[in-house]
Design goal:
The protein has 3 helices and 3 strands; from the N terminus they run E-H-H-E-H-E. With 73 residues, the protein is of the alpha+beta class. It has a 3-stranded antiparallel sheet with strand order 2-1-3.
């Protein structure tokens, strides 16, 4: 399963970068900025792959933070 960050017209680049780096310690600010730019231009970007329990927990946290997230198999 994978989590995808989807484009929206609500959240700023800085906010998206802050959320990504806070929930994914393996991403630094530069990597999070690159993800935000990919999402802005391509409409979506895969940000995490893993097993169901982790995916659902991260999905809920990111949704609560206001990001547009999708789970794909």
């Amino acid at each position: 399963m994978s989590l995808y960050l989807m484009n929206d017209d609500v959240n700023s680049f800085d906010y998206v970068i802050a959320i990504i780096t806070s929930y994914f310690p393996s991403y630094n600010a530069l990597q999070a900025e690159q993800i935000a730019r990919i999402v802005h231009t391509a409409g979506k970007c895969k940000i995490y792959s893993g097993f169901a329990p982790d995916i659902f927990l991260l999905y809920a946290k990111l949704q609560k933070s206001g990001l547009n997230i999708e789970i794909k198999h």
